[in-house]
Amino acid sequence: MEKLTILPIIPQLTTFQIMTKQIHCCQCQKEVEARLTYGKEIYSHRDDLHALPFWICDICKNYVGTHHKTKDKTKPLGNIPTKELREARKHIHALLDPIWQNKEGDEKWKERARIYRFLTEELGYKYHTAEIKTIEESRVVYRLVQFYIKKGYLILTQPKSK
């Protein structure tokens, strides 16, 4: 068994402990016992990600990042997506993020919350991009966002000049 190198972001993890958590895996289509690991295992070619925590499904090897910049550094960002689903979520973010990211201060987070409330109402369930479980669901969300941008209900903001 390979020795686990301890990095400072997860101080509670020692070489003798393996942290696991029940997380939904989209490929396995069930709750799995995900294992906490570091980016070095997942992104061996990306030195900038080596020390960041990730949850990995040891059955299919898919993974999800964590809220590493918050108090709960090991909280999963959402469920464990497939590679295809991860890409679909990026496309949704590419549509949604410009709507709220160029706002200032509290307005930024109020706008983001408004958009997520809007999608929650339209979809009939609590929406969060990281909780999308299927490609079909991602297509529905993407088309819905596109439609409401086109209709002017969601307004894209111009990037601030620097």
Query: What is the helical fraction, as a range of percent?
Result: 25-40%
Order of helices and strands: EEHEEHHH
By DSSP (H or I, 4+ residues per run), the number of helices equals 4
Query: Helix- and strand-based class?
Result: alpha+beta
Strand content: 5-15%
Gyration radius, in Å: 18 Å
What is the 3D form? Answer: globular
Major sheet: 4 strands, antiparallel
Poorly predicted runs of 5 or more residues: 1-8
Q: Averaging pLDDT over every residue, what do you get?
A: 87
Q: What oligomeric state do these chains adopt?
A: single chain
In total, the number of domains comes to 2
Number of DSSP strand runs: 4
The side-by-side strand order for the widest beta sheet comes to 1-2-3-4
- In whole angstroms, how far apart are the ends? 51 Å
Descriptors for this entry?
162 residues, alpha+beta, 2 domains, globular, disordered N terminus
